Amino acid sequence: MSEPLAPKRHEAIFDEIFAAYGGRLYPAPPFFARSLEVDRTALVYWVRRVKTALDVMRLPEIYFDYLSSGSVNAVASETLGYGYIGLTWGAIAVLGDLFFRMLSHPDVLPFIGNSSGEALDESLKDGISLDATSFQARRRGDTDPRQNQVWATVPKDPLRCHFARLCGRAATDFLILHELAHIGYGHLRYLKANFDAPFLVELEALTSSTLGQITRQALEMNADAFAASAGLTGFLEYRQKWINDLPELDSLIGDEPKAIFVWAFGVGALFSIFSPTFDINSLTTQSHLPPSIRLEGSVKCGLDACARAYPKTKDLLESGSLNLLHLGHALSCIGHRLEPSVVSDYQAARRDPRLDAHVKRVLRRFKELKPDLKPYSYFDLENGNPQDEVC
Fewer CB under 10 Å: which end of the chain, C or N? Predict the structure, then answer.
């Protein structure tokens, strides 16, 4: 058991570990404080739920805070017997802006609430920015009278606003659970011992070696599987509380297929803000599988875990009930349109047999890693829960 640390000490450690990413977001912007506290509360919930569900009471205490970077990113580290997770404020701002703009467009998901009263200003159909600092400055500026309002627009219909918030919850929970998996499965301690990596940043390379990158991709696949499996099953379990607090949510998430659509839309958007294209010849030089491939795997993992608890949801993908084409349409409505050449390049890479061969190689690498991870993992890698494997 680690010696208790004072909050100020945790803050100092967080600043030191993640100095390259701006350290703590302090003080939090007043217009943003409520959103940040909601996510902080979510982490406490997930840690408690994971400890109970997986019977891992020895999981270290987790200190969670926000990074002052406007980029879309998340980080995890472990030191002095404590886990540290950082989420950039840019991730919250970019995703919140994205979902609110989508649901403010009358042609996006018109079957949700009353879309006829929505209208998205042309200036807000400016696609996707992965840097919250720049788009906030562009949208608000120094003289903007809405200086205390972080969102440039909010859906007029209350149900559509709720849908946007639920999507943001699903996407942010995925990021939090992904980082929690890096700590829980011992990824951080393993990488520190074998690659001298003090922390994991989601969009950065670990090493230039092929084995190092395949290893990193295998660990990231494991973390994605956990985030999707735990995230979707937790979303379904928690929805009754949300409905009890707000009965109108019953029409959005009252039955499993509808709730799964909300979750998949939110997580799908998280991956879709990045380009779907990838260089088939450079797969072994990247720290992660391409976002578009990670999206496929994450939805599959989530549905596989969900089907075990809710058998009626087993054939959602095969039956076409989970139609994520709505997501592509929603992105185009806010100005995020892919050039035909980008689409054709993605399709060509996706059909290339070398992609499937590479994914199988990553899966094999994870199986090879399991004995090496076992001494570092807080979770049971042998007798496992569905989340213990990659999908």
Answer: N
